Every structure is written in C-alpha cells, then in structure tokens.
Amino acid sequence: MSVVDRPDSSGPAVATGAPSAPTTREATTPAPDTAAPLTSAERAELERLRAELAALRAAPPPPPPPSRRPRGPIRWASVASAVLLVLGLLLVPVSVLAVWTHNQISDTDRFVATMGPVLDDPAVQTAVAGRVTQEVFTQVDVQQLANQAVDALAAQGLPAPIADRLHGLTGPLADGTRSFVQDKVQELVSSPAFVAAGQQALTVTHQQLAAVLAGQSSAITVQGGDAVLDLYPFVEAAKQRLVASGFELAAKIPPIHPTIALFPASTLIRAQTLYHLLDVTATWLPWLTLAFLIGGALLARNRRRATLVIGLAVMGTMLALAAALLVVRGIVVGAVPEQSSAAAASAYDIIVRFVRAALRTLFVVGLVVALAAWVTGPSSAAVRIRGTLARGVASLRRGAVARRLAEGPVGPWVHDHLGLVRTALVVLAALVVVLLDRPSGRTILVVVLVLLVLLGIVQFLDQPRPAEHRPAPPVADPQSPVPDGTGPTATGDGHDYTGNVRKGS
C-alpha cells in the first residue's frame, strides 16, 4: 500500500504497513555522499578552532565583578607613620616662629642684637634726623620769628626799604636754618655715642619688660584690679640728684612708695600667661617635632622614601615661609609714607634676618636629608654614583696598600664592623648639628663634608682578610653518623663519599 498524504491533515501521515515509494521531495533531494577530503589549510584552521575550544572549556569561569574594591588588612604602623609625619611637618614652621619670638622676648642680648643694628642703619638714621628736624620746626617757626624781629626793628625806626629787603630774606634764612639743623641732627644720630645710648636704652627697657612678663619685677605690681608702677626708684634717684646739687633737705625724704595705675591687672596676667606658654613651647616644641619626624620615618613601610619626603617637605616649608616674609615686607613698607619706606624696609630686613638665617639652615638640612635618602636609593643614577665613588676609593687601595690593610688588624676589623662604624659617624654628625648653638647653613655643609670624608676613609680602610688567613670551614668526620643514624652517606653507585666500595654492593 502507498502512503496517503493529507496536506490538510493536522496529524502525521498514516502508513499502510508496506514500504512506500519515495515522495516527490525525497526523489529530488540527493542522498549525502562521502565527505570530500579537507585541504591542508582547512585542516589547520580546524585544529586551531579545536584547540581554542578546548582552552576555553578548560579555563575556569571568570569571577563575577565585585561590587566594590576589596580592601586588604589595615597596617596600623603605616597609619601612625602618616599621622606623625603630618604633625611633624606642620609643627616645623610653628617651631621656627616660636623659638624666634621667644628669643626676642626673653633674651635681652638676642633682642639687642636684633634691634641694635636698626639704629646704625643709614636709612633709619636719615629718617630719624628728618623727623626730628620736622618736629623742631613745627614747634619753632624760624621764618615767623625772623619776620617778627624785622617788624620790631621797623618799629624802632628802621627804614621801610631796608625792612622790606629783610622781610625778603626771612625765607632763605629759614631754609638755611633748617638745613643747618638737619645736618646737626644727622651728625647726632650718626655718632657712635648716640648709637651706644640707643642700645643701652634698648637693653634697660627690654630687661624691665622681660622681668615684668616673668613676674620678677618689683616696679610693676598688681594692686586691686590694676597693674601699678611703683615710683620708689624714681624718688630715690631724684633725691640723690637733689642732694648732689646742694639741696641737703632732700636727704630727709623718707622711703616712700607712691604708685601710678598703668592698665588693668587682667592685661598683665594674660601677658604673663602667654609668656610662660611661649617659654614652654619654644623649649619643647622643636624636640617634639623632631621626635614626630623620626618616629614617622621609623614606622613607615619604606623608610628611605619617608626620609626623602621629610627632606623635600622641609625644603618646601622653608621656601613658603620665606615667601610669606616677603609678602609681609611689602605690606609693612606699603603702610608707611613714601619718605619713610626706605627706612621701614631696612628696619624690617634687620629685624627678620635671624628668621631668614634659620630658614636657610633648615632648608640646607632638608636638602642634605633628601639627597642622602636619594643617593642610598635604588634608582639607576644613585647606583651609578655609589658605584663610581666605590671604584674611586678602591683604586686608591690597590696593590701593596690593600695587602698591608688585609694583613693588619684595622682593615679586617673595619670590614667586620662596617655598618656599625657608618651608623656611628652619621649619628655623631647629627649630634654635632643638634648641639651647636644656632648653626648656619654653611656650618651644616661643613659638617656634611667632614662626614663624607670620614665615610670615604672608612671605605678606604674596609679590607677583608686574605683567603689563606681565613679560618677553614669545619670538615665532617667520614665515620660520623648522619642525622638519621645510618652511618656514612651512600650514593647510588655502590660507593660512599670516601670512594670505598660498600659491603654487599
């Protein structure tokens, strides 16, 4: 029977039981033949694709993207290092200004050394002479007095033409008198006696001020709610002067203590409190700053890099303070009249010269620290520099010099303790810088140069013992048991390490 196709039937075709003849589609579609052989290029491409598929199947699946970056464990030493370094670097400029201010307020010699040269500066002396002359002629009008004198002569019968001519000369007379007074005042303020008197006045005034702030002055005391000045020293001085002048009755004046109210007592108490706070700050703050910086460097993960950062940061801080001083200088000079600007600029430069000296010193210290950290680092330039220096020192230690150093006690000892000797020299140089009284930048450079020379000498003396004099390493006993207790070590060829044939081989 044949297969009955029902195109409109929704079910499958029903077979009658016997094989049917092929349909029209089956008759027209050719049966698959044997596949044609692949070319070499196709086979290579097939192999490549199979290898890629196998690699993809063998590779583990990629992890899902994390919602946020995983954090590793916190290294608290690094956190503490960062905190200490930030605090130390912030306290560096505060320490500089605190020490300078304390020196100016508490140290009379330092104050006079700072302010004394102001009186000796030509620009300041010219400004002082001009101001004194101006005040003199403000109180004494020379031209008006001359005109009054001419009028008085005219009233006494001086002819009018002569009086008119004399009136015309009063102006030049006043100008000439002003020039004369200006020259005399200039000679006065430029004289060594005037400068010495001014420095003496500065000394006495500062001593009294420092004693008041320290609470050691008996002249200024607190009574009630006011700070009062005890006039007893002035009364005694006046009494002695009067007796010396012949007024003998002044000797009968009894010791008295009249007072004059100066200002509220709270102002004095506040000033004394600030003075004591400044004294403590200037004494301990520099050491605290140094401790912060050293502690931060020691706790850092990379100590050399932390040291380099400290040096560069100190240099940058000193440059920032120097720029701030220049800005303040411009403000100060711009706040005074034009005729006094030269004197104000000179006085400002003299007053802050010790601050600038401290900035230069600390800048040099930061430069030395940064260079030391860089030279000891792993950069190619630093390695070349160290290699060049080492080869230069080694070239001086060749031949007989090297043999003598190796045979003597110095060379081997330095070789065995090289790190300790270098560390001791660096610590000694640091102590010299710290213990010097106000070292300058030039002093720092001299200390560094001496340190480099000493390190070069140590490198020159570094010479190990010759090979024939070195102690020989211990030789193991062939018959001694090995750690497992089996006797002489056996090899796989039937011999022990002594070359003897083992029994039973």
Give an overview of the whole structure:
- This protein has 505 residues and is mainly α.
- It has a domain at 289-465.
- The protein has 18 helices and three strands.
- Strands 1-2-3 form a three-stranded antiparallel sheet.
- Strand 1 (220-223) and strand 2 (226-230) form a beta hairpin.
- Helix 5 (122-139) crosses helix 12.
- The protein starts with 23 loop residues before the first helix and ends in a 44-residue tail after the last helix.
- The model is unreliable at 1-32 and 475-505 (pLDDT under 50).
Report a brief summary of the structure.
Helix content is 67%, strand content 3%. By secondary structure, it is an all-alpha fold. It has a domain at 289-465.
